[in-house]
Write a structure and sequence with these properties.
Layout: H1 7-10, H2 24-45, E1 49-50, H3 53-57, E2 67-70, E3 80-85, E4 92-97, E5 103-105, E6 116-119, E7 130-135, E8 145-148, E9 154-157, E10 172-179, E11 182-185, H4 189-231, H5 236-239, E12 245-246, E13 263-266, E14 278-283, E15 292-294, E16 300-303, E17 308-310, H6 317-323, E18 328-337, E19 341-342, E20 348-358, E21 370-373, E22 376-381, E23 384-387, E24 400-403, E25 406-411, E26 414-416, E27 423-426, E28 437-440, E29 452-455, E30 460-463, E31 466-468, E32 475-478, E33 485-491, E34 494-496, E35 503-506, E36 518-524, E37 527-529, E38 536-546, E39 549-551, E40 560-572, E41 575-577, E42 582-587, E43 590-595, E44 598-600, E45 605-610, E46 613-618, E47 621-623, E48 633-639, E49 655-660, E50 663-665, E51 671-677, E52 681-685, E53 690-691, E54 699-701, E55 707-709, E56 722-725, E57 729-732, E58 738-742, E59 749-752, H7 753-757, E60 762-766, E61 772-774, E62 780-783, E63 791-797, E64 800-808, E65 817-820, E66 827-835, E67 844-849, E68 853-855, E69 861-862, E70 868-870, E71 875-881, E72 884-886
Length: about 900
């Protein structure tokens, strides 16, 4: 009986690198053959045991009637006990008996699949053999097969001859018999699974009853059940455990129920299986809420309330909502027509599939499709589409209205096509009990007014919603009433193509940013694209605006990708690109930090900070903000005084700002990096590189009260110095330290651009404290008395003149002066005019001369030791002090 592989091949010398290491798979194969042969011999096979019939037929040197075993033939039906025919050396072997194995333990190592099991055994599995085998994974389909020793798969059948059902085989052990191509199980797993499921359900029901009703009530029910069984009013075969089954609720009034039966099951409302049935209990009196009915014997029956009710049990959606207070209401998939539905407390309305509820054509009411008024603890979720039917209605109405509610969730629905708004939430504040209401994962699109309108609310999380193609604002959180509302989280929303702004948190109070009516607002990771006005407008006290994308918003010079106002604001890591004019517009803010934003290719100004108080613009990245057609573009603009109109000016001028670490790149003629003007005060300017200018004029600082420089903001001046033409008065930029001078004209005076713009002119006019006058009703223009023809606008607030804005600056003036403001409806307003300005910051400059020229000692230039001629390529260091420059 040759083995393959045999001992010589298995235990031959190993490879040179490891001569003492034979192959473990070959060792296992050899030992398996040895074990099989040993098993065969120990079972009475004598000395004749062959793996295959072919090996046996090749060994005829045995006397007649000698018995031999074949135990591992690839054809499993050939395995068995054989008898020798004929004399030794002749004759043949014939099959006599099957192998005498009554039981085989097979092993499933998981090499197959849940629906195609593979197992191995030490001896072949033949017909009639009892086999045990382990199951490692629950099956997922039907039929299920099993293959032993890589032989043809056998179909597993239940004891009753059925295919194994999906998930009927679970991890554990099977016991079965092979009969031909079928592996029959000795136990019926399908029936067993039902028995176990029924058992588990019974245990769960028992536990729930004990928990909800207590041991005493459970004992009482058990006694009543025993009584009913003893009364014999229904047999188990008919009633399925003494709960009779009837067809429809509509048919019950014609039937009488025997007195001993306290519970019945009805299979439908109008037809069996229509979803309107359930378990009903006999009631002592008429129930207060449905579903319910009265039978011919006079008894009332009400639904046995469980966790969920189906709207199919009721004739209308409103009846279903009323009955489901305190429960879950499942609305079956389908199309419904309704309006004026009223929600209730403590309800969860859930779509069971796609639910479409459409407003009727030409509905004369102003009611929303669904309204919750003064309700708490409710949820509206699932694939529920509220369709306002805008094309067939003219009266403004909403899809969903929530008024005076708290602790609610609106999730996964849609409110589209309304003649009003997709969803309106009013006066719904969860501040007192500390809970948060959430509006998440919804769609509010194509509505004639707002997508989502939250008016006078608080403690709201608004996330993952889409609000697009609405006529007005996509998502509006409106605190403009002046009342205080706080704790808004707006995250991961998408607002596109709306007729006004994409997302607007409206809480700004002009002239008093500290009185902003929205508090504690987070606006993060939203997308606002292609909206007609602002992408995101955010006005609040205590606000973080981060990670948002604002792209291609606005339709004019007043609009921005991101508008931010208020107090204590951080705007960081936003991407603001290709908006109509401003990238980021931050007017009248207090304690404002704008940092690490990417602001690129916006149509006018990258970052605009106007009339803001204290903060910084730091570490931002700005590229080519401006209009290449008009050769105008400002990357960072600090403006002292601004205002929406004459009647509501910003009362403060910009002061206390630090501008540092901003990286600016421009490639168009006329674009400028950093500009500060209109009476900015107390500004610190650090290092703000600006690269790529095609013309000089890297940064311009004009009309500012106090400016300190602690870095270089001269952009590519390190690579190419700004060239200044020589003249009687050499005009140098307000920023920078090194300049080239062309030409050969004698220089008598040196002025900064800021100084030169106000020589002999009024630089600014202030109103002395307490001298704003009274009786003024509106802003007005006037000619400044003694101002060399200067004109100005007096800005009025609260009956007083509070600011004066220059229109023209006059000429020929030599000193500061004061006077009375003429004109207007009031009187008593006085002014103080400051004339000219001087360099007072001790600035040091270095001039490089391209040609030979003379710098005159005199004018505002001194310490030269007389006029000095400087040849080409010479340089001159000067230090400024109070308007004069000294060598």
């Amino acid at each position: 009986m040759p083995f393959s592989p045999n001992a010589s091949s298995v235990f031959a010398d190993g490879p040179t690198a490891s001569p003492l290491q034979p192959s473990k798979p070959q060792i296992r194969a050899y030992l398996t053959q040895l074990e099989a042969a040993t098993d065969a011999i120990s079972s009475g096979a004598g000395t004749i045991a062959k793996q295959t019939v072919a090996q046996l037929n090749g060994d005829l040197a045995h006397a007649a009637d000698t018995m031999a075993w074949v135990y591992a033939d690839g054809n499993v039906t050939a395995n068995g006990i054989y008898r020798k025919n004929g004399a030794s050396g002749a004759g043949s072997w014939t099959f006599a008996l099957p192998l005498p194995y009554t039981y085989i333990a097979a092993s499933n190592s998981g090499s197959g699949t849940p629906n195609a099991i593979k197992a191995t055994s030490t001896v072949p599995v033949t017909n009639g053999m009892l086999v045990s085998v382990n199951v490692t994974v629950t099956n997922s389909g039907t039929p299920v097969t099993i293959s032993f020793n890589n032989q043809s798969p056998l179909t597993i059948k239940t004891r009753s001859g059925l295919d194994i059902g999906s998930r009927d085989l679970t991890p554990g052990y099977l016991l079965g018999v092979r009969l031909g191509s079928i592996f029959y199980l000795l136990s019926d797993v399908a029936v067993a699974s039902l028995i176990y499921a029924a058992r588990d359900a019974a245990y769960a029901a028992r536990d729930a009853a004990q928990l909800a009703q207590g041991l005493a009530e459970a004992a009482q029910h058990a006694a009543e059940a025993a009584r009913d069984i003893a009364a014999g009013y229904a047999s188990d075969a008919v009633s399925q455990g003494n709960v009779p089954i009837y067809a429809t609720i509509n048919g019950m009034p014609a039937l009488s129920i025997p007195a001993g039966i306290n519970a019945i099951r009805v299979n439908g409302l109008a037809a069996a299986g229509d979803g309107g049935g359930g378990l009903f209990a006999r009631q002592a009196d008429a129930p207060s809420a449905g579903p319910m009915f009265q039978t011919a014997d006079g008894s009332w029956w009400a639904i046995e309330r469980k966790k969920a009710l189906s709207a199919a049990m009721f004739s209308t959606l409103q009846n279903a909502i009323n009955a489901a207070a305190g429960a879950i209401l499942l609305i079956p998939a389908g199309d419904y027509v309704a309006t004026g539905l009223q929600g209730v407390d403590n309800i969860e309305i859930v779509a069971d599939g796609r639910v479409n509820i459409k407003r009727p054509d030409n509905d004369p009411s102003f009611q929303a499709i669904l309204t919750f008024t003064g309700k708490t603890n409710f949820k509206l979720r699932g694939d529920i589409a509220l369709n306002g039917n805008r094309a067939n209605n003219t009266i403004a109405s909403n899809c969903l209205t929530v008024d005076g509610c708290g602790n609610y969730t609106i999730e996964g629905i849609s409110g589209n096509n309304a003649t009003g708004c997709g969803c309106v939430i009013t006066n719904s504040i969860d501040i007192e009990d500390g809970t948060y209401s959430r509006v998440t994962g919804n769609e509010f699109n194509n509505n004639a007014q707002y997508g989502l309108y939250s008016l006078s609310g608080g403690n709201h999380t608004i996330d993952d919603n889409e609000a697009s193609d609405n006529t007005l604002i996509g998502i509006l959180c409106d605190g403009s009433s002046g009342l205080l509302f706080k704790n808004f989280i707006l995250t991961n929303n998408v607002a596109m193509r709306n007729g006004q702004s994409g997302i607007f948190a409206w809480g700004h109070r002009n002239n008093d940013p500290g009185n902003t009516s929205l508090r504690n607002v987070v606006i993060a990771n939203n997308i606002a694209e292609s909206n007609a006005e602002w992408g995101i407008a955010a006005q609040a006290f205590g606000m973080t605006v981060t990670g948002n994308i604002c792209y291609r918003n606005g339709s004019g010079a007043a609009h921005a990708g991101l508008l931010i106002n208020g107090v204590n604001i951080v705007a960081t890591a936003n991407v603001i690109e290709e908006n109509s004019y401003f990238g980021i517009d931050a007017g009248d803010a207090v304690n404002l930090i704008i940092t690490a934003n990417h602001v690129n290719y916006n149509g006018g100004v990258g970052i605009n900070v106007e009339a803001a108080q204290k903060g910084g613009v730091k570490g931002n990245f700005l590229t080519d903000n401006g209009n290449p057609t008009s050769n105008f573009g400002w990357q960072i603009y600090l403006r002292g005084i601004g205002g929406a109109d004459d009647n509501s000016p910003f009362l403060n001028r910009l002061n206390g700002f630090d501008v540092d670490g901003n990286m600016m790149t421009v490639t168009h003629t006329g674009y400028v990096g950093l500009i500060a003007d209109a009476d900015c005060d107390d500004i610190s300017i650090g290092t703000n590189p600006c690269f790529g200018f095609s013309t000089p004029g890297i940064a311009i600082i004009v009309q500012c009260e106090t400016v300190s420089y602690y870095g270089e903001s001269a952009g590519d001046a390190k690579m190419r110095m700004t060239v200044l033409p020589s003249a009687d008065v050499l005009i140098i930029p307000d920023v920078g330290t090194c300049f080239a001078v062309s030409g050969s004209a004698t220089i008598f005076n040196i002025r900064t651009e800021r100084e030169n713009s106000f020589v002999g002119k009024i630089r600014r006019i202030d109103i002395p404290a307490g001298q704003g006058g009274s009786g003024y009703t509106s802003s007005f223009d006037f000619t400044v008395p003694g101002g060399g023809g200067a004109t100005a606008k007096a800005l009025v607030y609260g009956g007083k003149v509070v600011q004066v804005r220059m229109i023209t600056n006059g000429s020929g003036l030599s000193a500061d002066f004061s006077g009375v403001i003429p004109g207007g409806t009031g009187s008593g307003a006085n002014f103080f005019a400051e004339v000219g300005c001087i360099n007072s910051d001790g600035r040091q400059i270095e001039l490089f001369f391209q040609n030979g020229l003379t710098v005159a000692n005199g004018g505002n230039i001194g310490n030269l030791g007389g006029d000095r001629f400087l040849p080409a390529n010479a340089r001159l260091n000067l230090r400024g002090k109070y308007g004069n420059y000294y060598a």
